[in-house]
Write a structure and sequence with these properties.
The structure is a homodimer.
Chain A (H helix, E strand, L loop, with lengths): L9 H19 L4 E2 L1 H8 L3 H10 L10 E2 H12 L5 E6 L3 H7 L9 E8 L8 E2 L2 E5 L3 H8 L3 E4 L3 H13 L4 E4 L12 E4 L2 H17 L1
Parallel strand pairs in A: 3-4, 3-7, 4-6, 7-8, 8-9
Antiparallel strand pairs in A: 1-2, 5-6
The complex binds nicotinamide-adenine-dinucleotide (NAD) (2 copies).
One nicotinamide-adenine-dinucleotide sits at the interface of chains A and B.
Chain A binds a DNA duplex (30 and 30 nucleotides) through helix 3.
Chain lengths: ~210, ~210
DNA sequence: TTTATATCGAGAAAATTGTATCGATAAAAT
DNA sequence: ATTTTATCGATACAATTTTCTCGATATAAA
């Protein structure tokens, strides 16, 4: 069995997908081996940092050669839980919900959205990117029967807590939240916020500083 | 003039929008003053951390009372550059592009997407959420004339670098990138990646760890 | 009025994260 | 065959970020 480090920093975790995207691109181009130095150059990171990040996945390299790209991809995917797809329910088939439903690459990232839910009667019964839009009332029962672990929240902020409570009650273990609202979850449930506004904040703050000069 | 601290950490910058969302919610409920302790409780942060974050915006509180919510909102928005809207161009009117075009709250966050561009002839000429979809060839000229500072990249990864080069050539100063590709930009241009897969990586890694137990 | 308490603001301490150094090793160059 | 070079892996060091401590202050309670 592979023994993994007990703690991984969030920063490391967030850099791993970057490496993965790069590795897949390079492999398409026929690259077989890659060094931390090369990876670091692509992102303007420190090579040692890359090495440490890769170390957490359990990958081992060889001096003067680097790491085998194929092995690295497998190791990173394993580590992130992207080797087996997790089935997920999405609630809120609005603009963002539709974009997520239409994103084919999620399968590569271990995410398989199997159904959507909405409270809008006009949306219920339609199909979006080949997934049925179901009434919210059906979520608890279905989530249990289908062993759904991941719930995606794409409803307006004021309804987000209600949706989360429903999901948690239905046995969902991990929540990916797109609403800009602080959510309360019970111990043991995983909450991850995909906050676009945080990213935007960094952008506009930097831009403002540059423009003020 | 308000003298701002020279350096703000990215972490602080990313927490500020969280506070802002909370403050706006609380103000709707009639709250006038709020302490760092209260804010910290909402997010499970350390109160001192919140106090330091708020300090960077130039806000000052009073002992035993806390901060005036209204002042805090203004200060944070000022600091993030969300007090005046920045006009932006969006390239790639696909699933994600449409979601972004349809997001009304961006105005609150200082972002005003004024036009969309796409290379797909079937999309060009249509309107999405009341914004025209224009051919890519028109971008350089229009960006200059309209003094566009922000470019949003929502095209598939393999085309992202090309779009960025076009934007930079057109004088765009800041790029918000949604494609999972490492991009090269010249000195002085701001690049911010809105990488959803990073957030997903944290979620699935945590979930995998829990499920393995 | 006096005392208790919550909070700010500043600075110190601790923890975390990132960077540099160095020996070992494997390939390439001489 | 020997030297040089690139890289890994381990460890030490540095920077940053978070958390703790404490005095000052403003309100509320006694
Ligand atoms: N669109 C974006 O680009 C964007 C960007 C950042 C954040 N977000 C956030 O994502 C969330 C969704 O945004 P959107 O643009 O898709 O909004 P939207 O209004 O287009 O869609 C919301 C959908 O949720 C449904 N809904 C509302 N309440 C519900 C409930 N209680 N149960 C089930 N369904 C419910 C609505 O019927 C609608 O279909 C919001 O919280 C928004 O702030 C969106
Ligand atoms: N949809 C999602 O939920 C999601 C999530 C994460 C990341 N992303 C990323 O966002 C980007 C867009 O994703 P999407 O789902 O909207 O894809 P999409 O295929 O739906 O849309 C892409 C759009 O870009 C246009 N386009 C392609 N090349 C172009 C070019 N050179 N110039 C101008 N327009 C061009 C296409 O015509 C299309 O309209 C991708 O890089 C994707 O990886 C999307």
């Amino acid at each position: 069995m592979i023994s993994q480090p007990r703690v991984v920093s969030r920063s490391t975790l967030k850099r791993l997908p970057l490496y993965l995207h790069l590795l897949e691109k390079l492999m398409d181009q026929g690259v077989e081996n890659i060094s931390c130095t090369q990876i670091a150059q692509e992102f303007d990171f420190d090579p040692t940092q890359v090495r440490k990040d890769l170390e957490t996945t359990g990958a081992v390299g060889t001096a003067r050669i680097g790491f085998r790209a194929a092995t690295l991809v497998v190791k990173i995917k394993e580590f992130l839980g992207w080797d087996n797809a997790h089935d997920a329910f999405l609630v809120g088939a609005g603009n963002m919900g539709k974009a997520l439903l239409g994103y084919k690459d999620f399968e590569k990232y271990g995410l398989n959205i199997v159904a959507a839910f909405d409270k809008d009667a006009r949306k219920v019964g339609t199909r979006i990117f080949n997934r049925e839009v179901l009434p919210l009332a059906k979520l608890p029962n279905l989530a249990g029967r289908m062993h759904i672990n991941i719930g995606i929240v794409a409803v307006p902020a004021e309804y987000a807590q209600g949706v989360v409570d429903l999901m948690v009650g239905a046995g969902i273990r991990a929540i990916w939240n797109f609403a800009p609202a602080p959510l309360r979850i019970p111990e043991g449930v995983i909450l991850e916020n995909a906050r676009l506004t945080q990213s935007l904040a960094v952008l506009t703050n930097n831009l403002t500083k540059v423009l003020r000069k």
